[in-house]
Amino acid sequence: MGKKIDSPLQRLLECYVLQAIDELGPKQRRLLERLEGTLQKLYQSVGNWQQIVQQQVGLPQDVDHTLQQAWASAGSDRCSESFAREWAHRLVPLSARCP
Question: Per residue in 40-53, pLDDT tens?
C-alpha cells in the first residue's frame, strides 16, 4: 500500500478489511453498497465499493486472501466484533489516521 490515504478513505479501508475477513455487518454492507454511486463520482472510478478502495489505495488483487490468512493467525477464533474492528483499525497506516 504505497499511497497516502485521506481520512474518508481510511474508514473505507477499515470496512474493506472487515469485509475481507467476513466481519463487516450486514447493515454496514448495505450502506456501503448504497454509497457506491457517490463513491464512483467522488473518486472518479468505476466498480463496487471494494473495487474502488482497491484502486484508490493500490491494493494487490490477492489482498483478501492475505488478510484472511493474517486474521486466522491473529486469533480469529477468539473473535468478537470489537476485536475485529480494532484489528482492522491497526492495519490502516498511521499516516492515514484522522488528526
Answer: 999 999 999 999 99
